[in-house]
Amino acid sequence: MLINATHPEELRVALVDGQKLLDLDIEHTFREQKKSNVYKGRITRIEPSLEAAFVDYGAERHGFLPLKEISREYFSQPEQPGRKRIQDLVREGQEVIVQVDKEERSSKGAALTTFVSLAGRYLVLMPNNPRAGGVSRRIEGEDRTQIRQHLQMLDIPDNMGVIARTAGIGQDFEALQRDLEYLKQIWQAIVEAAEKAPAPFLIYQEGNVVVRALRDHFSEDIGEVLIDDESAFQAAQQFMTAMMPKVLNRLKLYDNDIPLFSRYQIEQQIESAFSREVRLESGGAIVIDHTEALVAIDVNSGKSTKGQDIAETAFQTNLEAAEEVARQIRLRDLGGLIVVDLIDMESPKHQREVESRLKEALKLDRARVQVGRISRFGLLEMSRQRLGASLEEASYEPCPRCSGTGQIRGCEGTALHVLRLLHEEALKAGAAEVECKVPVDVAVYLLNEKRLPLLELEAKSNTRITIIPDPALLTPHYEIQRVKAEATPAHNERTNSSRNLRDLPNRPARAQNGAAQAALNPLTAPPPPSVLPPPKTLPQSPQQRDKSASKTATPPSEGILARFVRALVSRYEPVDSQTFLTRALGEEAIPPAAEPVSGDVETKASGDTETPSGRSRRRRRGGRRARARRQSGQDERPHDGNDEADAAPPTTAMDLEVAPPGREVRRPKEALEWSDPASSPEPPADEALRYPATRIPRADDWH
């Protein structure tokens, strides 16, 4: 037996056979152990539906006391035949002496009992349960007969019961009687202490792990006990002097420079007890998972190649896993229902051998274990007595991020969940603002990938939505707070100032310092441009108008999309049905008839041919040449006022373009060619959407 007590916060006891770790017990001073402690408590509530009472014994959560665990001495009326009701037997506010039978686990309170049991070295005394008593189930044969004879000779009070432990095998009558007297003194001290003070308070506390280890684990098979701490050695020496003086010479103080557990090479074996997966020598492995209902152990063959075929390999791996499962159950102190998923075996003979190997390995366990048969699904069920908190419960704490599940929701899933909650909160009546604190990665995803839904939600609900990245939060945690319209004046002022900023049409863009850096500051998604009210223009004084007129306004820079749309729209013009048909049929357009002016006389030159448009061919040719000369800048002939010579010829459908009312604009076909933007003047404002325009955009302008 090795006892490591160099660190007062953690005391470890290990049973070692050579260099193989057989059993392990760890106690932490920062975690109070309540099992087997005796308290004086008060019944606070009676629950008839559960046939149990809840007892305040001084802990944070009240203990659970079933009716079957209540001694008759606490009944308010004599026991009667038939079914008993707990509300008729005990009452609220009644004080009782209880002992912790099971430790608190997760959300469950401690299980209590009024049948106190005091464990000694050889005997277990049950002072208020005379019906209990007997011999341990592990004692068999002649040893069982001998110890029964010693129990009949002991001076046991009528209202008490005694159970003989396995450590009492081979002990004489005097040793058993001395142990009984020691336990009777402890019970008498408990009764006297309970009468001195009102409930709730602690009456009797179990000894530390050193005393418990010597009392529960020490046997004749243990050759020596090594302790590496002076104070722990003195406590063990005092206990063995009083209870086991014959084996006091086996107790030794370890004072070597090499750590005690490292000397026997068991540190690695202890760490395997904290691991989820335990490797087997053959190459297989067992995986241990804890659930609320049971402990699941899965056996995997892995790289095991022990057998000649697949059936033999499965059989040999299961045999090796059976011994390791029994060992891990002891090391981890697992209790409750345990299910082992073995590798499938077709042969019933192989199944029986695996069951026998497991039962043989469990004989070293000091807890009661019930083992079932391998089912047709390859599952083996067993139930083990819960002696205390398991190694995982005593050493581990639930993960604050995943709450002990081992998995968390991803960034995208958390962001979508938060977005749905924001939608729900924003649509509630009276919501003026919704603030959401989320992890940085979730905030980056919302502001980059879900900005448009946030804008639409703000416009739809008329609610300000603020996304606040919080580096202290981790996925999947978040905080959402809804602020009503009737908030404090300071808050209303902050909200109103933000809304005034949102009314500005052109807000300065935020500096791009990276997605994560930008997300560290609280950001609010701006509203969509379609819902913005038009900017208000304040009246200017004459001085301000003069200043603004003297300054050249800088046109806003166009983006790629704006340039593409402008280039696309500039190729087309709205036309009427007559012009469309004329262009489609390839005929000349018929301009609208001019209204005659009073006093004017229409004259025709000789030789001119009348056209459908009422104009002469000569006039059309002369007008076309004159217009071409004017377009190229070569026509320097002074205008003599002759309307006949300067009149433009009739224009075809390809020459006609849309003009303002009362004016007809014609352009020669020779001008319809690509022009250089540097040499061509910009078109007037009213010709920006006409085709063909004075300046046709080049192909690279469209990009």
UniProtKB/TrEMBL annotation:
Chain residues that bind Zn(2+): C399, C402
SMART domains: S1
Organism domain of life: Bacteria
Bias (Basic residues): 615-630
Subcellular location: Cytoplasm; Cell inner membrane
Region entry Required for zinc-mediated homotetramerization and catalytic activity, spans: 399-402
Domain spans labelled S1 motif: 36-115
Binding site residues for Mg(2+): D298, D341
GO cellular-component term (any): cytoplasmic side of plasma membrane
Enzyme class: hydrolase
Catalytic activity annotation: Endonucleolytic cleavage of single-stranded RNA in A- and U-rich regions
Subunit description: Homotetramer formed by a dimer of dimers.
Cited NCBIfam families: RNaseEG (TIGR00757)
Protein name listed in UniProt: Ribonuclease E
UniProt organism field: Acidithiobacillus caldus (strain ATCC 51756 / DSM 8584 / KU)
Taxonomic lineage of the native organism: Bacteria, Pseudomonadati, Pseudomonadota, Acidithiobacillia, Acidithiobacillales
Gene: rne
